Amino acid sequence: MQLMDIDKQxxxxxxxxxxxxxxxxxxxxxLVFGALLIQLFGAxxxxxxxxxxxxxxxxxxxxxxxxxxxxxxxSQKQKPFLKEVYYVWQxxxxxxxxxxxxxxxxxxxxxxxxxxxxILSFYFASLKQVYTLDDNTLTLATVDSDLNQLNEKIAxxxxxxxxxxxxxxxxxxx
Length: 174
Description:
Helices cover 69% and strands 0% of the residues.
């Protein structure tokens, strides 16, 4: 995966719209599906005010709403409007994969493994990008420090390593 330049304003605006749209759609569809299921299959209301036992129908309504919202979002992920949002989502998934192997990757980097250097270079550069886009300024200094230390080590070894060399298949090699 290659790092892309992302316009922070567009990313933030689109992310907020997607989140708000997803939550609103989920809430509305859950209510509609729940009401429809209760209308079709629910227990009649009791005169004494006891519980009708329609919890399972409401839960099924929420699950159906989640499935519909997820399917719609998945079908739209390649549209230009979601380009930045989907790109950052993919980066965050890669971060999780790398983080699970980070101890092994750092150990390989201590042994001057070039693949580990490439993975770490991509990891730190992409973390910096995501943290900047999400305004995560608390950990940005740590990432900058880690990236600088890595670049110094790479330069001291006389290697040419860039984040663009990263391929997700490299994670299987470590």
